[in-house]
Specification:
single chain
Length: 481
């Protein structure tokens, strides 16, 4: 069931992030480091605004909407949902304006308007995507995940090609696309226009979500603290320089994780509702194995092709620093996503959001000081190494807690097979000469992916045979009357 649902979510997990990665590369050729830095800071600020204003309700919806469906109480939930969203729009507008005022960007009416509209529409679209995922509405989830990045990137490309190479133009492209998408999503999810506040629902949401709001803000600092630290000490231009490699590495890990995790947590929640907590944790362990099976080859592959890929794809002004930072960002992102989508979800399933807050605090307490120390000692690369060290130490502590106290299963046999397949792939990539051209890079990536897939298929041949037999039997079964 996990693999089937993962495949259904695959278009949403590939298309939007693919365009975001493409845009991150293209902007290095069209934007100056200072404009790239302003863009990176505003995108980071939007993520903070979402964490402050809407993440608490999003977490409640993801965890409890299935229970509302089981109990038939969605009619009580929906008016409260609409009221929360309306209130968040007003709060987001205020917080986004304050955040922009504290940046060193040159403010004008166009930048302020694009920032506020981008922030509000992206946050609402993000929430509606999570709402669709919680209710199993795959078409709506796909639209929420893809429309903004895909259409927004295309609009941004068009505006920049017309001669407006600025952060404002890029933000306006995203804002327009997201604004056009929201009414469609609203209708698909049947949210209506009824307002109301159910005190019981709101009380549970606040009790469950408030610690997670704090966790979200602290977690934001763990990922985006690097940009803030560099901006404070060095300015927006250096933020632009580090953001290319850091964004690409982190985004690659996030994309890899979301390929398999979009379906995993809702399935685990349903197992907790319909079966038991132990069954839900076993479901998480299966998802953890699948997650590592995607993260490991992508991270190792990027480490191997790093220099060639950067020299072929990234703008000359950003190349040298990106070559140094990208491997650090890939390792940091892989470690962090394995922890977030495997160990951290143990605490949410067990309804211990207080521990989720503690987890994020541990990471932030480690990451931010180490980032500052690294920047002062080794410059921009040192700042990234400080973040990597903090993420790795936090992951070790949190996995010990999840496995030791909450009995999270660890699928060691699966991990061993994945490690073997990844080593075989790395041996092939390192053992053969590859042309330092775009065609050579494509061939190297394709060969590595094929080698990994072949070894995995051999190691899991029995499971694949059983899966194929079950699929054939299901296809041959007569349809229910």
């Amino acid at each position: 069931m996990l693999l089937y649902h993962t495949l259904l979510y695959l278009p949403a997990q590939l298309l939007g992030p693919a365009f975001q990665l493409l845009a991150a590369v293209v902007w290095t050729h069209w934007l100056s480091p200072s404009e790239y830095g302003v863009l990176a800071l505003i995108i980071a600020a939007q993520e903070l605004v979402f964490s402050l204003c809407l993440s608490w309700w999003s977490q409640y919806t993801t965890r409890y909407y299935a229970a509302h469906q089981e109990e038939g109480s969605t009619a009580r939930f929906q008016p409260t949902e609409n009221s929360v969203l309306l209130g968040s729009v007003l709060l987001q507008t205020l917080v986004a304006s304050i955040a922009l005022a504290f940046s060193d960007a040159r403010l004008d009416l166009a930048l302020v308007g694009a920032t506020v509209l981008f922030t509000v529409t992206r946050s609402i679209a993000t929430y509606l995507g999570e709402r669709a995922r919680a209710s199993g509405r795959i078409a709506a989830y796909t639209l929420a995940q893809t429309s903004g990045p895909v259409i927004g990137c295309l609009i941004g490309f068009a505006v920049v090609l017309e001669g407006h190479a600025s952060a404002t133009a890029v933000l306006a492209g995203f804002a327009i696309a997201q604004t056009l998408t929201l009414p469609v999503l609203w209708r698909m999810l049947g949210l209506g226009a009824v307002l109301g506040l159910d005190r019981g629902i709101l009380s549970i949401a606040i009790r469950y979500g408030a610690p997670l709001l704090g966790a979200g803000v602290i977690s934001w600092a763990s990922v985006n603290g690097l940009r803030v630290v560099v901006d404070v000490f060095n300015g927006a231009a250096d933020v632009g320089l580090i953001s290319v490699g850091w964004n690409l590495g982190q985004r690659a890990a996030v994309v890899a994780a979301m390929l398999v995790t979009a379906a995993a947590y809702p399935l685990a929640v349903r197992r907790a509702v319909t079966h038991s907590r132990g069954a839900a944790l076993a479901q998480l362990a299966q998802a953890g194995a699948l997650l590592l099976g995607v993260l490991a080859p992508i991270a190792v592959g990027l480490l191997i092709v790093n220099r060639t890929a950067v020299e072929l794809l990234i703008g000359p002004e950003f190349q040298s620093i990106t070559i140094a930072i990208l491997p650090i960002a890939v390792l940091s992102g892989a470690i962090r996503n394995l922890r977030m989508h495997y160990a951290d979800q143990t605490f949410l399933l067990c309804e211990r959001s207080d521990i989720a807050l503690m987890v994020c605090a541990i990471e932030a307490v480690l990451v931010v000081p180490l980032c500052i120390i690294g920047l002062l000692v080794k410059g921009l690369v040192g700042a990234c190494l400080g973040c990597l060290a903090g993420h790795a130490l936090a992951a070790v502590i949190i996995f010990i807690l999840a496995v030791g106290r909450f009995r999270l299963p660890v699928p060691w046999a699966h991990f061993g097979r994945i490690a073997l397949a990844t080593l075989c792939m790395a041996g092939l990539l390192e053992g053969l000469p590859w042309a330092a051209t775009r065609l050579g890079l494509i061939a190297e990536v394709a060969a590595g992916g094929l080698a990994y897939a072949v070894v995995i298929a051999l190691l899991y041949r029995r499971e694949l045979r059983a899966l194929l037999a079950a699929w054939i039997a299901r296809s041959a079964a007569p349809a229910a009357p």
